[in-house]
Write a structure and sequence with these properties.
405 residues, Growth Hormone, Chain: A
Length: 405
């Protein structure tokens, strides 16, 4: 591939204003992490309350991810042409609408549609906020901030299941959607007051140019490798969040709040994993850090598979292996995202869109496949092992070495 040099002109804001923008965006990131995790403890109860199947409940995750994927496809390209701020505000408004309707209507079909709407709205914020940071930060600061983004995102899976479990126990599943609504309104107010327009060197929305930009990134081996690695690592969390509620509540007889505590430990592990990730990125390249994380991933998946084959009681195995999978994700996901964003700074919206598109496409496919699987304890271990093999192949064939777009 021919190497092209792009000069990135960073908008001029004071350091104080930049810090406020970063804080506002990071403060909203737990909402992204809670899009799935807050509702996870309520999935069995939703099926019972609305008299639907377990497949319906699981597809609430699939539809949410499809909404994220759809919003991603459109918004990254559009934001490069018309700017960032208004799209962030529109996205949060859409998320609020998708959150308030389900508890008011209690109709299964509307619930699925609203989960899609929620995903679409939050995708607008997620993709465009990443592009906003690419607009105002240098490559080095962007790499560093990406790990903070993962940390703040990780707070969602920590507090989401815990809050969702107690909301389910004391108020039923509708309370989760009222919580989403309140979070969306708070985020919208913060965005209105703090986040300015940051994109002034706009790309016209001309199909030939869009096609050139799209193809240049789709044919970039390392960039697409980063996108796929993000999808695989996030799928580790999707597997647990889709199958975990049914394994722990229906097979192991945990309550919704009991599963919320289990998911809380998973989230804590993810958050802990982001701290060494941030430190290690200062002393080694993203490629090397991904390599070491894959060694841990391979060791954990292999040992867990061996125990799954020789033991009959898998309770401790699923808990410990899932903890370590969340830790691996905490390193793989932000490192791949940081590298992908740094490779596409000259087309930040398009780059963020393609990264999220591949990520959400893979996780949506994973969630759909999980919805078709009869949840049991040993199955989740085999799935972890399969994802490990795919991740190792992506690193070997796509991420070794480096190249520039």
């Amino acid at each position: 591939m021919t190497t092209t040099t792009h000069t990135i002109k960073t908008p001029v804001f004071s350091q104080t204003r930049i810090r406020l923008i970063i804080i506002a965006i990071l403060a909203l990131y737990p909402l992204i992490g809670m899009g799935i995790d807050l509702i996870a403890p309520s999935l069995p109860a939703i099926g019972e309350d609305l008299h639907t199947s377990t497949i319906f409940s699981k597809n609430m995750i699939t539809l949410y991810l499809l909404g994220v994927m759809s919003g991603t496809v459109l918004m990254g390209f559009i934001s490069d042409a018309i700017g960032r701020r208004n799209l962030i505000l529109y996205g949060l408004c859409i998320f609020i609408i998708g959150s308030i309707l389900p508890p008011l209507l209690n109709i299964p079909f509307i619930l699925l549609i609203c989960r899609f709407i929620q995903g679409f709205g939050i995708a607008m914020f997620a993709v465009i906020s990443r592009a906003t940071l690419s607009d105002i930060l240098s490559t080095e600061k962007l790499m560093h901030t990406a790990t903070f983004m993962a940390t703040m995102w990780g707070i969602g899976p920590i507090i989401g299941p815990l809050i969702g479990g107690y909301l389910q126990v004391y108020f039923n599943w509708q309370a989760c959607f009222y919580f989403y609504t309140a979070m969306g309104i708070a985020g919208l107010l913060a965005a209105v007051l703090i986040i300015p327009e940051t994109h002034f060197h706009r790309q016209p929305l001309h199909y030939p140019q869009l096609k050139i930009n799209f193809i240049s990134m789709l044919t970039h081996r390392s960039f697409i490798g980063c996108a796929i690695m993000m999808g695989i690592s996030y799928s580790l969390i999707i597997v647990f969040n889709t199958l975990g509620p049914f394994i722990y509540q229906n097979i192991l007889n945990y309550s919704a709040s009991g599963f919320g505590k289990i998911a809380f430990y998973m989230g804590i592990t993810f958050l802990i994993g982001t701290f060494p990730c941030r430190k290690l990125l200062k002393i080694m390249t993203p490629d090397k850090l991904i390599f070491y994380a894959l060694i841990l991933f391979t060791f954990t998946a292999t040992i867990s598979l061996i125990f799954a084959l020789i033991e009959t009681d898998h309770t401790q195995n699923i808990f410990i292996s899932s903890l370590l999978m969340f830790f691996c994700c905490a390193i793989l996901y932000p490192t791949a995202m940081a590298k992908g964003l740094s490779l596409s700074r000259h087309l930040a919206g398009t780059g963020a869109a393609i990264l999220t598109l591949f990520n959400m496409s893979l996780t949506s496919l994973c969630a759909f496949l999980m919805s078709m699987i009869n949840a049991n304890i040993s199955t989740i271990i085999f799935i972890y092992f399969g994802l490990m093999i795919i991740a190792s192949g992506v690193y070997y064939f796509m991420l070794r070495g480096d190249e520039k777009i």
